[in-house]
Each structure stands twice: as C-alpha cells, then as structure tokens.
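Okay, can you check this protein?
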Amino acid sequence: MIQALQSLRGIATITATSLVAEIGSFNRFASPKKLMSYVGLIPSESSSGETRRQGNITKTGNRHVRRLLVEAAWSYRHKPALKEI
C-alpha cells in the first residue's frame, strides 16, 4: 500500500506511511467521498428551502490525515523534477 501511495506525485515515504497508519484499510470507505468526509475535506452546507450554500471545508475528522493530504496537494502543484541519468 505504501509503494502504491508513493507513485502519486507529492507523496513520499513518510507521508505514505503516515496515511496508512492513520487510515488503516482504505477498503472500509465505500467511495472517495466517504474518505474525504472522514478526513473533513468536504464543504460545509447551509440549506433552507430552495437555497443551498456551500462554505469552507468542515475540518471535522482526522486532523493529521487532513494535514498530510493538504501538504501533498501543495507539493503536487509544482512540476516534477526530472533527473538526468
């Protein structure tokens, strides 16, 4: 699982190991939406009748995993460094 996560840009050994340790089995989530809800990376919502407003992320859930994913996303936005052989 750790090697599979490391294949994603922005996730290195420590991040992948921490994600696996904190989440355990990714199979326990039926969908990516359920995982993001567990981590607290879904928008808050205020609904009344026909009006539906979405706000900032809820920040409820596993704070450590949320931080790891946010930091991985920040490093993902940079182009990968290509090494010459």
